[in-house]
Amino acid sequence: MDIGSSIRAIRKRKHITIAQICEETGLSQGFLSQVETNKTSPSIATLESIARALKVPLAYLLLQKEDRMNIIRKDARAQTTSGPGRLKVEHLSRTDKVRTVIVEMPPGSSTGDEPHAHEGEEVHVVLKGRIYAEQGEDAAEFEEGDSFSWNACIPHLVRNIGNEIAVILISIFAESESSDYPQTLV
After folding, report:
1. Residues in CB range of 89: below 8 A, 6 or more apart
2. How confident is the model over 98-128, as pLDDT tens digits?
3. Does domain 74-173 have CATH number 2.60.120.10?
4. In the 3-class helix/strand/coil scheme, how is 144-156 assigned residue by residue?
């Protein structure tokens, strides 16, 4: 764990000196310097007093870097295409278990000729256009503002039934990394 670098980054961002932290916590400047350079590992009680002095939750100091806020700027989003309809997929976020994408479906396009299934659960929000979705024996039409969710292990299909591009925001929750993602994304 790189707790020391986190402490230093928070301290500098908040314009707090080592001396101020030491005054509040009772720690020596030498010890805190060693903590910040990861040369020594503080106890949980010490981390708790440092967190209090920095005015951050103790749990935040214990987070791995990959578990912290992940920022993807609009102009830096990855874009791919998916399925036989070459649907445009814009990747908004990605963690080990949750992916959020925006899918653009041209008029008449679909996620495939036949319903397909894959691991995970999905939540869909129609941002623009009209779509038809089916899963097993259930089917419905959706328009802007409508949403639906399903367990993706049941075969499903989505089709743009409107005369304009349909835009769908989709969050996909999966227990493990899907090797065929994004081909089986909606």
Report:
1. 79, 80, 81, 82, 101, 102, 103, 182, 185
2. 889 999 999 999 998 899 898 899 999 999 9
3. yes
4. CCCEEEEECCCCE
Residue type, 148: F
Q: Kindly report the pTM of this predicted structure.
A: 0.67
The structure tokens listed for 33 are: 């310097």
Domain parsing of the chain, residue ranges = 3-66, 74-173
Chain length of the chain: 186
Domain 3-66 has CATH 1.20.1730.10: no
DSSP string over 41-102: ---HHHHHHHHHHHTS-HHHHHS-GGGS-----GGG-EEEEETTTTEEEEEEEE-SSEEEEE
pLDDT digits (tens, 9 = 90+) for 127-173: 999 999 999 889 999 999 999 999 999 999 999 999 999 999 999 99
Of the candidates 68, 69, 71, 61, the residue with the CA atom closest to the CA atom of residue 5: 61
Q: Cβ of 28: how many Cβ atoms within 10 Å?
A: 11
DSSP 35: H
Instruction: Dig out the tokens for 88 from the structure.
Output: 């445009």
